[in-house]
Specification:
The protein is mainly beta. The chain is 14% helix and 46% strand. It is built from 2 helices and 10 strands; from the N terminus they run βββαβββββαββ. Bound molecules: 7-(furan-2-yl)-5-methyl-1,3-benzoxazol-2-amine (8WZ).
Amino acid sequence: MTAKKVFSLVFVRNASEILLGMKKRGFGQGKWNGFGGKIEPGETIPEGAVRELQEECGLIAKELKNVGLLEFKFEGDPTLLEVHVFETHEYHGSVIESEEMLPKWYNLKNIPFKNMWLDDEHWFPYMLRGEFFKGHFLYRGEDLILKYNIQVLDKL
Ligand SMILES: Cc1cc(-c2ccco2)c2oc(N)nc2c1
């Protein structure tokens, strides 16, 4: 039985910008990413997404749109990482730095892919076009994607 770990990943958007966080410690440290983390027992995936967003950058999502599903495997590790991707355009609160994340707004034309997970450059275009997507990536370490596929779905 393959072990599965379920994560949320939330991107806060406005018309021309996206809020990213520089991960300050732990898994993905040193990379810009959306806000998220492990879904805890007893919470739904959207509940976990709202919780992690507020914990990591202070914003409270008033609505969340599920925009994609990403599955990750690392060569030599049987664990499947299942990452549910969300966008929010409606939120309140003020952006604050947390122990986990240093938030920063980026213009959509200037996303720092060189300092993000390698898969992001492959699936961000689908998200930015408003398409529902499902992607599967096989990594060797953190710096090489051995194979991947991405499909556009009618709905998740
Ligand atoms: C292997 C991997 C994991 C994650 C992740 C997000 C939340 C928890 O793990 C990623 O996020 C992005 N953008 N690429 C990622 C690759």
